From TrEMBL:
NCBIfam families: sfsA. One of its GO terms (molecular function) is DNA binding. Belongs to the SfsA family. PANTHER family: SUGAR FERMENTATION STIMULATION PROTEIN A. Coiled coil: none annotated. It comes from the Bacteria. It holds the Pfam family SfsA_N. Signal peptide: none annotated. Gene3D superfamilies: 2.40.50.580, 3.40.1350.60. Residues 83-218 form the Sugar fermentation stimulation protein C-terminal domain. This is Sugar fermentation stimulation protein homolog. Residues 13-79 form the SfsA N-terminal OB domain.
Length: 232
């Protein structure tokens, strides 16, 4: 996924009220940017760090920019939580993930029972529901999810188990928008219920695919699948 407009460079002043961030542009102007990430953003917040913003298309929007990425330890970390859905949808549509190739019909935002899933894919043999989560938290060499308690995330796992029980394919994709990790695990210390449910989902046949993304100011692309350890 390439950015359609050139991103705007600045430095993070502070993040506040979850969805807002003050950024000082290179010109010295301080602007308010929309932060799509509702989590704690643990391990990817550093005041004074370089950031990139995308200009808003809607002139009526209250904030002129969306916060896209931050540079920590010399590497860019994607913080826009809407990007992973686009990455996975395009990758499945264009047959770019071998494990999710071969689907003729690919849609976004499809409902099953009481949950709406990010991607639905089908062919003459099977239906597949895919849920996508953004991962930005790092602990050592591990990328971990979630960075805050997520009742909604737990609900998605429970519904994916029912998808599998109904004879369809159920896939949980974690898009890791940072390059300084090489294994995925759940953050049981932050949300033990989510961690337990993820292990249960795996045992029920829900597939887990942690995908690392390469984040640059020019664009964000899925790189490859990471190993995972749910017991660490």
């Amino acid at each position: 996924m390439k950015f359609q407009k050139a991103l705007v460079h600045g430095k993070l002043v502070k993040r506040y009220k979850r969805f807002l961030a003050d950024v000082m542009l290179d010109s010295g102007e301080v602007v308010v940017a929309h932060c799509t990430n509702s989590g704690s953003m643990k391990s990817c917040i550093e005041e004074g760090a370089e950031v990139y913003l995308s200009p808003a298309d809607d002139p009526k929007r209250k904030t002129r920019f969306t916060w896209e990425m931050i540079k920590i330890n010399h590497a860019w970390i994607g913080v826009n939580t809407t990007i992973p859905n686009v990455l996975v949808f395009e990758a499945v549509l264009n047959q770019q993930i071998p494990e999710l190739a071969g689907y003729l019909n690919v849609k976004r935002e499809v409902t099953f029972e009481d949950s709406r899933f990010d991607v639905f894919a089908s062919n003459e043999k099977e239906d597949c529901f895919i849920e996508v989560k953004n991962v930005s938290m790092k602990e050592g060499r591990y990328a971990r999810f979630p960075d805050a308690v997520t009742a909604r995330g737990k609900k998605h796992l429970e519904t994916l188990m029912r998808v599998k029980q109904n004879g369809m394919r159920a896939v949980m994709v974690y898009v890791i928008q940072r390059s300084d990790v090489d294994i995925f695990g759940s953050a049981a210390d932050i949300d033990p219920e989510y961690a337990k449910t993820l292990i249960k989902a795996l045992k029920c046949g829900v597939e887990i695919m942690p995908m690392r993304a390469n984040v640059t100011p020019e664009g964000i692309e899925l790189e490859h699948k990471l190993a995972y350890d749910l017991n660490a």
